[in-house]
Write the structure tokens for this entry.
Amino acid sequence: METMLNLIPRPAKMTVYGGQIRLSRFDKLQYSGIDAQALAFLAEQVPELSMKAAGEGFCITMGNGAALTPAGVPAKPDAYVLRTACDGVRIDANDEAGLFYGLQTLRQLPDECPALCITDWAAIPIRMMHWDLKGYLPRFETLKAELERLAAYKVNAILLELEDKYAFRCAPDIAVKGAYTYEQLRELSILAKSLHIAIVPKLQCIAHVDYILKHERYRHLRENGHIFQFCPVNEDVQTLWAAMCDELMEVFAEHGPYFHIGADEPGNLGECPECQKLGAADSYLWKVSRCIEHVSNRGWTPVMWDDIVRNHYGLFSKEEERVLRAEVGKRAVLMYWAYGYGGAGNEFPYIDEYREAGLRIWGASGYSGCDNWAGSVPPLAVRGLNCDAWAKAAAEYGIECVCATGWTRIGSADCPAEPQESSWMTILYAAATMWNAEADDYSAFIKNLFLQLYGKQPDEKLTASLLNIKASPYDYKQALNAQDEPDELRFLRCAAAAESLVTQRDRLNNYFQYYQGKLGFKLEDYRLALLTRITDGLRCDIAELRRVLREVFSIYYEDVTVEEILRTRLDWLEALNNQMIALLEKTEAM
């Protein structure tokens, strides 16, 4: 019965009593314990119901659900009890968030459902999703819809990495064309609050800042001329960073208490003359300590990546490592990232070490951007192992937060990686594991989620590609032929097709190798005819695929994103194919 109900994530406890209940026949809803913002969102979700306030505590009833006696709700994070009976539905919770998540589960029940009782709660209190906008600029309506979907699957925090996709008022010239405005992000902040999603702004404080330093206006802030990293001791750097930090805190005033300062991967420490006086460790300590202090003085709690504190790159002596942990690690929440690659790679040896040192840690898994820097669809069979391992570790160690990271661009110099709109299988799998700390069968999860998102079962080839697209490339012609499907599903097929074009590149490269010394000169007629037919057909297919990709991707993303995707996925193949065509035109048949 549980499989038939297709609930994602699976609830902690569910008892099915049998019988059939038609939920749509209940036309009245009563509520208590819901604020105005959440109530407005609730009204949008169930517009067909008449609603009124009634009762006390945190409760929602439909039909004559008020006749059901209040349920005892476990004293656990975001807990709720949902019951359906022949005369009504009742949801009880300990707080507004639990009530909200009970409603999300109710929305997943089919109209014809059995009488049942679900008692549910979160295994991990803070279930965070990394929303990285380095690589993509979603249309604003897309961004809002993405938040609503995350809330529906019980995600309650977003690590928001904006970079140049926000037009900072305090930092002119950084933003890309069409970047979000202050007013738009204020709207997003209010929406997230109503969805019980806490926004954790992320602002890199030392490295990964080439989106700023590539502009002439900020060139003087570079460490020894390097575009990737701020100079740690330059006072103008701290002034700029503090102003950007304060602006983000203003934008997301409904949120807090957490603010992520980055602080990872500074590869050029101690290079400029002033930083040489301090050395690599002390220059890092000087800069990061000031950022921690700034965030703390504003009443927020600083969060930072852990790689420098764990001396991941071997930059520091044991004594310097000890000082960094004492002076930095104990003053911020350490986000321990370990993305694994399946099997033994999904182990986290620093958990015990950090805990023994009295450091506060969160975990960071990876749902995308970890396996192929030019990918378009993350492999669930690989990412799922990492998400499973972190959820299990968090539940066992009592770690309060796991953040599933999704890197849409590794660095500003790199091409866009997997977009969120083609990563829902890994995103929502990560969300499910963070809720119940249970592993699932990956193929079954894809099929169940497909039914919820697209209203149909996936074909076997697409399922295989979603599990591991490198091992099972997707035929790009299937994306060209998929016309009468939901836009989201067409997007997914197009993304899979775009990544799988690597098979066409490899085929062309093989032909260049096979016929080296003949192309452009003389080639047996049957092979010349074969190569001509293949390259002419591929030229037409590339042109059609470019048209379809632009059409589908433009539904969700701004032009600056769409054109970069097309350029980085198609231009290289088109150039290679044109090179082959030019040689074939010069080749004489034998």
